Automatic annotation (TrEMBL):
Pfam families: TadE (PF07811). InterPro entries: TadE-like_dom. Keywords: Membrane, Transmembrane, Transmembrane helix. Residues 15-55 form the TadE-like domain. This is Pilus assembly protein. It comes from the Bacteria. The chain crosses the membrane at residues 21-43.
Length: 169
């Protein structure tokens, strides 16, 4: 009796479509979720890029009286991310940004700074010819991103970071 039941069950085709549909639905779910991971990563990265760019424009527009204390909060608010780590550096030194008694430097092609007096011509290897020394603000923002389905390496990096340098003087 048991053997005939199992033979009948093995030949039965009713419900096969429902099982195929269930399997295809699971596959579709994983593909869509993976695509959403990519999309959310690029949306979050775009928010950070936009926030840093807007903060650098604001700093440039108010270059003689930049509110360095509020600038990181401004970047966090624009990016909609309270977990965003924002650092400010002026002429390559973190935490020394000021609106008075600024010391100037020349920006090199490697991203480093060579101290010079303000408005002096930048000379030497690695600096742009005919440029003058200035006061540079760098805004660097970063935060981690956790994908839902994809492994961290699939997005290139699990850290979203954007940096902008603007000349204030």
């Amino acid at each position: 009796m048991m053997r005939s039941f199992l033979n009948r069950l093995a030949r039965e085709e009713r419900g096969a479509v429902a099982i195929e549909f269930a399997l295809w639905t699971v596959l579709f779910f994983f593909v869509v979720t993976g695509a959403l991971d990519f999309g959310m990563f690029y949306i979050e990265r775009s928010k950070v890029n936009k926030a840093v760019s807007a903060a650098s424009i604001t700093a440039f527009e108010n270059r003689s009286e930049v509110d360095f204390a509020q600038l990181p909060d401004y970047v966090r608010a624009l990016s909609d991310s309270s977990s965003l780590t924002v650092s400010l550096s002026c002429n390559g030194a973190e935490g020394v940004c000021t609106n008075t008694e600024r010391t100037c430097a020349c920006l090199t092609s490697e991203g480093t700074y060579v101290a010079k007096s303000c408005n002096a011509e930048c000379t030497g290897s690695g600096v742009t010819a005919n440029s003058t020394a200035g006061y540079y603000l760098t805004i660097d923002a970063s935060r981690s991103y956790e994908p839902v389905i994809l492994p961290k390496g699939a997005l290139g990096s699990s850290v979203i970071e954007h940096k902008a340098t603007v000349r204030l003087q």
